[in-house]
Amino acid sequence: MILQSVSFLILGLLRFAVDASQLDDILIQGNDALMEGNNQQAVLLYRKGIEEMKRQKGVSLLTTISLYTNLATALSSEGDNEAAALSYQQALTAYEDQNDSVSDIETKEEAKEIASQSSFFLGMVYQDLSQPKEAIEAYAVTHDRFDPNHWASYANKGSVFHDNFSNHEKALEAYNQAYTLLVGGHATEPPSEPRYILSQLQYRIGLCLSAREDRRCALQNEDGTTEAADCQEQAAHAFSLALQYDPSNVSAKHMLASLTADATMKRASNTYVKSLFDDYAVNFEHSLVKDLGYTGYELLRKGFDRAMLNVGETKPMQLVIDAGCGTGLVGEQFRNISTVLVGVDLSAAILEQAQHTRPGLYDDTRVGDVIATFDEFANQISLIIAGDSYIYFGDLLPLKRRSIG
Ligand SMILES: *[C@@H]1O[C@H](CO)[C@@H](O)[C@H](O)[C@H]1NC(C)=O
Ligand SMILES: *[C@@H]1O[C@H](CO)[C@@H](O)[C@H](O)[C@H]1NC(C)=O
Ligand SMILES: *[C@@H]1O[C@H](CO)[C@@H](O)[C@H](O)[C@H]1NC(C)=O
Ligand SMILES: *[C@@H]1O[C@H](CO)[C@@H](O)[C@H](O)[C@H]1NC(C)=O
């Protein structure tokens, strides 16, 4: 299971307005008990509230589903997962029976949020109960019916397909959905420290891809068509991303090494790299720098300065090629020592983004393979800078031969 945190649920439920009825008093007392970790007391209070609710007529939907949902959370904390599952289901049934009668938009949204959490936690309870099929259904309800941005339900659904059914296709699809939501910045309640989750997702994506024996994977193009791609290449790429997010993960290091040692794998195909970054062009820098705390571009310049200090050479470089330049994070660091700075990238979308974010940074840009640019400027190149792009080349030898000239 990728995410497991049952205890956060109640915090979101304290927001709604209290009309000071006796029932809401009971609910609030129950929430207080639950937050203090007094689960047994909370269970008693919520049960009392539910009895009271059944006697009264016209109890609000929010109060009803909050009682059932919080009772379920208290029960699950007590270790009674069977009763917890039942109570989450009752919350969901109450939602389906009554949501159409709620007219206030805000209340409607809030009820939907609680229902979404209920079905997500129901999925986790089913996992604990060793009912993987039901867990998958509950996770699917969470993102299909309540919240399409619920990344955690995609992630956990993927892990059940993966761990309990060895269904790599379905797992892959779900992991990718979770990853895309997190990187795209639209995820509901993203983790405060996303690197670990992103690494875990890519690691699992790599496992699913490398498990395919026929090595034929489909790659989705922008226009919706698909083309064939080598699964091992894609798996290697996934493991290298996992490593970037969590450089200490020796399992990912090992998987990457064993895949790239495979002599039949040359380098990630250009189409693959291009489509990857076309998709992420707009959010690329945001996710890399802001969300992930990436500082590799600064380190690269610092390392360069240190190396040059030893060599004793400080004069500007005549022609500098920024290979796989992306949005210009690295190029910017080298602008002040470059007379002419040329950016090369496979993705036209990301070059547009570079022009938008850092107008005038590059004297010239090329869309396409770096090898073609090395050939074009043969023997004139003073310096090649490459941020994170060399990881996309399985075999660096042809590249070195060209650039050294
Ligand atoms: C009420 O919930 C049901 C079940 O989730 C859904 O099909 C329906 O669209 C919802 N109605 C409104 C108005 O949200
Ligand atoms: C699902 O897989 C996980 C990880 O292998 C395992 O711990 C769990 O017991 C499995 N559950 C079922 C129901 O098989
Ligand atoms: C590497 O990451 C994977 C996925 O998050 C995890 O299962 C594994 O335990 C990690 N291995 C190490 C050695 O950190
Ligand atoms: C050149 O730019 C780098 C990166 O912005 C900066 O660290 C360095 O101090 C600059 N050098 C000069 C001489 O302006």
Low-confidence stretches: 5-20
CATH architecture of the domain at 1-161: Alpha Horseshoe
Q: What is Rg?
A: 27 Å
How is the CATH topology of the domain at 1-161 named?
A: Serine Threonine Protein Phosphatase 5, Tetratricopeptide repeat
Q: In total, how many beta strands? A: 6
Q: Which superfamily, in CATH terms, is the homologous superfamily of the domain at 1-161? A: Tetratricopeptide repeat domain
Query: What is the CATH class designation of the domain at 1-161?
Result: Mainly Alpha
How far apart the termini lie comes to 51 Å
Which cofactors or ions or other ligands sit in this model?
2-acetamido-2-deoxy-beta-D-glucopyranose
Main-sheet strand order equals: 5-4-3-6
Written overview of the protein:
- The chain is of the alpha/beta class.
- The protein has 17 helices and 6 strands.
- The chain has helices at 22-35, 39-55, 61-77, 81-98, 105-128, 132-146, 151-165, 168-184, 194-210, 231-245, 250-260, 270-291, 296-311, 329-334, 348-357, 370-376, 397-404, and strands spanning 216-220, 226-230, 317-323, 338-345, 364-367, 383-385.
- Helix 5 (105-128) packs parallel to helix 7 (151-165).
- The chain is elongated and about 85 Å long.
- Bound molecules: 2-acetamido-2-deoxy-beta-D-glucopyranose (4 copies).
- One 2-acetamido-2-deoxy-beta-D-glucopyranose (NAG) binds at residues 301, 333, 336.
